[in-house]
Amino acid sequence: MTPFCIMIMLFNTTGGKIQGTVTDENTGEPIPYANVMIQNTELGAATDQDGNFFILNVPSGRYRVEISCLGYQTQIVDYVIVEFDQTARLMVRLKQTAIEIPPVTVTSELPSVTKDMVGTTYIVRRSELAILPVDYAVSAIAFQPSVVRSDTAFHVRGGRATEVLYLVDNVSVLDPQTGDPTVYVSKGSVNEVIFLPGGFDAEYGRAMSGVINLLTAHPANNVQGKLYSKTETIMPFYYDFGYQNYQSSIHLPISRKAKGFFSFDVMHTDDWNPKLFILPHKQRSDYSLYGKWYFSPSGKLQITLSGVKARSQFDRYDTRYKYILDDYRSDMRNSDLEVFNASYMPNSKSLFKMTLSRLHTKRIYGVREEGPYGVLDNFRFRDYQNLQWPGTTTPNPFGVWEGSFLTGISAPYFSGNYPQYQEKTSHIIKGNVSTNLQAHRYHEIKAGFEYAYQDFENFTYYVSDTAAPITDEYQHKPREYMLYLQDNIDYKGLYAKVGCRYDYFDADIEDVEPKIMISPRFGFSFLVTDKFLFRANVSRFAQPPLYDYMYSLYNLLPLPSHIATAEFLPPVGNPDLKPEKTTSYEIGFQGEIRENLVGTLNMFYKDVSDLIGTRFVNAMPIDYWQYDNVEYANIKGIEAIVEFMNTVFRGKISYTLSWARGTSSYAAESYFWWIRQTGGDTTVVPPKTEYYLDFDQRHKIFVQGTARLPFETNLHLFAFIGQGFPYTPPGPEGKYEERNINLLPNQFQVDCVISKPIRFGRFSINAIIEIINLLDIRNEITYHEPLLDWDDIDPSTLDYYIYAMPVTEDIGTIEYNPAADINHDGMISPREVFELYRDFLYATDDWVNAYSEPRRARVGISMSF
């Protein structure tokens, strides 16, 4: 395989359907054999005896549909909007005529309610995506109801971050080992973002909370190009985090049957996860190269070739390493995707598809060599065999030594390195065949089969605090396949989806039985009136556990005895893990309150079982922690949305009320609780209690609006108000008792984007000013405190005082440090030691990372032709 991978995707797999009825204007009788054609395409159909027609596999977009029949005036229906996986419905009445007369054009009315959305669906279109203050298209979901962003992760309807499926043109870009998306596509390459937070179809697997599908741009019929640049570097220091982003794209058609689209995106920032101010060792450089080639030898056969190669690399910051950040962790991920897809549509009611895909990703983390690095240069990592365990006993910049109260993993380090190095590779090949059949006027059948061959390699090197390091090296080739069948029923005012999905996965471990998952899906909707819709959905979702949870350190069992002296051993994998499961219930209402004012109300309830957690295992020769299906969660909530529009202003307001309770916020939480609370005491077992999860946000209001200003200038505002996240306050003696019983302060932020288009013939220039956190409000997003309360520092307990009091420079021992001699009198007094320890503790308080970013300002400009 070449480094730049060619991804072959079917353009039409991301489309919808047009159906309707053609009748006589005077008599109301159906007109059989009328021709229905979508202009500027080769798609069309003929009406049946009852005047009905169906056109499957219509790409998302806006169309003109022409209806003609001998003896009738031809009619052209303009502004027919086709959405992904939705149906555009037309009711056409033709006028009889004895002579040929020019066609009549009518405008299709966009329905205020969408009949066939049996589950919640949010669509972010290209025009809206262009003005959102985000870089990557996937981040657009942060502006949708029931989405909580916790640091850099998205949580949908109270679920874990690993419960979301990421797709690009219906192809998964998720790494099954880690649960991370491997390819980020810039918003300039995306036409629509389809976000499904619940009630999704049977074709979607490995997801329990949501599906994010990025539909990329389709090659145009004429030459088009775009250059785009956005930066903070021209701003004053206070507003500048070193951010720069450059994008370019071009459409290159040879003919209507052969055309291409190509784009390139590069981004650099000095702080990729900004907090109160720029922190060192947080640089990030990303690039992606994307291309697509569409080929249609006939209207029945269509193929699209496209390709993507992406690289992301960044440094990390941790307060414990603030004195030795050059020895802390950096990450690099290289990814590419290949797919071959062919579709054949023998008639307007049948569609057959075949897809072969390949996803390859390699992630490395460790301590990198010092730079400098260009944006396109890959990190070079230090030899892992030279890494050393981080130490806390070396003098720090304050001139004091570690006291007995600063032991443990929370103590800052002054020597050594980040004690891990990892290379992890995922190689996934999938074959998929599927079909859509309009079997009957009221029934559309969808079915599919997919097989996945996977090859996972891992090398992890753990530097131990003992003499012997720990090496975890393995290669496994687990297999997965799935089947699904779904009937889309469209009967008069009722629409229903009845489906079932079967999943099978084999962990490729001897004596471990393969696991199966059966996931029924059912949803329906019906029109109470022509402007009011009711819908309901009951579904079972399941996903295989991440393969990291199966394989990590498992090949070392039984653990060698020398590991017993290691400080802390990560949780051991469990290849016999069962699938995680979610049972979801949802009802929704949508209606037009009045003209240009639409309201939506969604209510959901989820029971999540067999969640991955960790449990303590008593074993010989040493005990350990292991992943297991021991956690659960219960989630419920309400979403209310109001959308409005007039000639001057348009926008939406959403409110989310939700409760997310469970026994674990992430898989290894019990393990880390054990470390924090007991320091590794094997006689203490974490209590199994239900609590509000770390990402539970009870109330959240989001406002998005666009106002048209003079001189064709647009003002876009984005504001949210949210309840603070729960946190666990320290109890007596610094121990944490009841979990998440307190709340951080409420959150509030306003972002602003101002855009001004300028046109010069075929050329169009758009200037943008983007202000993030317009009001410069610093939200507290996590609890923070010093390693020890200052009032608890007792000089008599400090190791320093065991040696000599006071310490003078002429003693000739290592205890004297000039940095600790505040008054430079050649003697370190107890008071100086106390004050320096207090200052030292303040410096190790992670207060900077506890607050959100300050105001930031960016200037952008795009030129298109």
TrEMBL record:
Keywords: Cell outer membrane, Membrane, Receptor, Signal, TonB box, Transmembrane, Transmembrane beta strand, Transport. InterPro entries: Beta-barrel_TonB, Beta-barrel_TonB_sf, CarboxyPept-like_regulatory, EF_Hand_1_Ca_BS, TonB-dep_rcpt-like. GO terms for molecular function: siderophore uptake transmembrane transporter activity. One of its GO terms (biological process) is siderophore transmembrane transport. It comes from candidate division WOR_3 bacterium SM23_42. It comes from the Bacteria. It holds the Pfam family TonB_dep_Rec_b-barrel. Belongs to the TonB-dependent receptor family. It is a multi-pass membrane protein. It is found in: Cell outer membrane. This is TonB-dependent receptor-like beta-barrel domain-containing protein. Residues 377-677 form the TonB-dependent receptor-like beta-barrel domain. One of its GO terms (cellular component) is cell outer membrane. Signal peptide: none annotated.
